[in-house]
Amino acid sequence: MTIFVAAIFLLLLSAIFAPLSRHGSVFWDRLSLFSGLGGTVLGLVATIVCLVRPENSTLKLAWPAINGLFALRIDGLAGVFLLPAFIIAGAGLLYGSGYWPNSEKPASSSWIRFFYPILTAAITLVIAADNGVVLLVFWEIMALAGYFLVITERQKEENFRAGYVYLIATHAGTLALFGLFALLGEKSCLVSLPGAGTLAGGSATLFFLTLIGFGFKAGIMPLHIWLPGAHAAAPSHVSALMSGVMIKTGIYGILRVISLFHAPPAWWGWTVLYLGILSGIMGVVFAIAQHDIKKLLAYHSIENIGIILIGIGTAMLGKSHGLMSIALLGLAGALLHVVNHGLFKGLLFLSAGSVVQAMGSREMAGYGGLLKTMPLTGLFFLGGAVAICGLPPLNGFISEWFIFLGLLQGGINQATEMNFIILAIPGLAMIGGLALLCFTKVFGLSFLGSSRTDHAPGREAPISMLCGMGLLLACCFWIGILPATTRPLLSGALLLWSGTALEINHVYEVLAPVRSITLTTMFFLALLLLISLLSRQNRSWDKKVSTWGCGYQGVILRAQYTTSSFAEMINSFFNWALKTRVVEEKVAGVFPQEAAFKSRTPDVVLDLFLVPSYRRFAELATKIRRSVHQGIIGIYLLYSALTLCLLLAIAIFLP
Predict the structure, then answer these.
(1) What is the DSSP letter of 56?
(2) How far apart (Å, rounded) are the C-alpha atoms in residues 245 and 338?
(3) Distance of CA 551 to the CA centre of its chain
(4) Between the CA of residue 323 and those of 319, 427, 501, what are the distances in Å?
(5) Is 261 helix (H, G, I), strand (E, B) or coil?
(6) CB atoms inside a 10 Å sphere around CB 56
(7) pLDDT (tens digit per residue) in 39-97
(8) Residue 521, exposed/middle/buried by CB under 10 A (0-12, 13-18, 19+)?
(9) CA distance 426 to 277
(10) What is the SS3 assignment for 192?
(11) Rounded distance, CA 344 to CA 342, Å?
């Protein structure tokens, strides 16, 4: 744990040095950057050491202020979440030095450099916390650091609103966590959490407090209200950290609490499974309807949280019925998807940030043909897109393979009540198909075709940004091509669920077909690349001619698919949920004017339910206030007398 503490210290030093670069000082800016990078590297080393040598993975210090302990512990479950946290944070720091350079924006750059390492440190300390008070303290620091990063460009009203919604949502979740730890007892709050599998039974109140408290942070639908706005408003490398790491603290909390129980009730598993299917399908459907590239990626975070929940629900059902092979397949898929999603979603946000920086807008309506001017960024985005769609040979395929097999084994098991789990397979397959459609749209409209505006074509990102993206893509390929290397990372967490070494061997035996699938895919990709290179060398038979358009010569750049037209069929099918608003000026009359079309898809929970409900409540409260506060002293004295009589009555009639 000494190395882990040193990593946290370096991250805090990075934050301390950041304000000193406010006036454009290169020295303090570089010192802040390298301190942060050193902290992430040391954090990686510390996590690996704690996973290899568990006897050195705890830290307990007296904390007189609470009459308890400052307790940290890195076990198998914490290690799964810490490893991608440090990798993504390091890639984000490297990327941020080019994306938000101190030489161009010294004030806001020092702001980000101050809160980014604090957010990273708080996230890792939440994961390592071993009692309720320590967890809640760093949970609050994490929430506040995230808020200040979201409102970096607070002069924009939409960013300030996104930060406000985020702050309300995160504190609603924190309130539920106070209730959760109160139910777990004083020892859990002040000394240490119970060991895995030591609690029997299961309280419905405790379960729902866990889902609500951690679900707000994870972005489980319908508790996702803060996520699309905050991810879109934050600087792109902050969005990568929030989506890839911060929201996973919610998943970590759910898994940590569930692992305390020897056999969670089956209805807990069904609830988590259904929430996963809802979040997965609705997340990707709302993503398809978006025009803002970062908001689209934010909804895909909700989708992938849904996939993780499907794996957790499968694991819980397997454990509740004593079917450990099913439980471990579901858990392995969920945990690996935590890692995978962090890597490929971080990559996608960083790639999208490069596009936003080059084009000056998050609206995909103005993109097009960017692969010609930003080939490396396009390649990195394509890699992230293939991974998020769960296609070989990248990492998303591996984790979804585990979850599919867990669902399939549960469906063919002889336990009758488990057979219904097979119905989740079409849901998971539907999520994958819709994700493929969505990223075909994003990549095609952004990087292929021709530019849709007169804006100057984007320029390739600087080397520091490319290095940050390249690191994450390399990790995606590593897991996709060599999935067996993840076994040391997952084994400790799987053992916490009463898995034996033999059962864990069985989990990794199911990867045997994956090797053939991956090699076959790589062979065909290499073949296509070879054919493409050979055809480029022999262009003697090539002739450039214009596309035949039935004699029409008035071709304009805007006559291409748009974000609305490409997804029109899916959006129409799901409009009962999307509630897309269309403003249209149709061609009409003998001498028609210009036509116009504009569509916007609101967030149903936030924009169509919570905001109108809040406004109605505010209007009612205003009316009550006006009727009560009349400015007459006699009425206020009457209120005091009535209150006194009420208190006397309570004191007399209640024991």
Answers:
(1) G
(2) 9
(3) 49
(4) 6, 22, 15
(5) strand
(6) 15
(7) 999 999 999 998 888 766 888 888 888 788 899 999 999 999 999 999 999 999 999 99
(8) middle
(9) 10
(10) coil
(11) 6
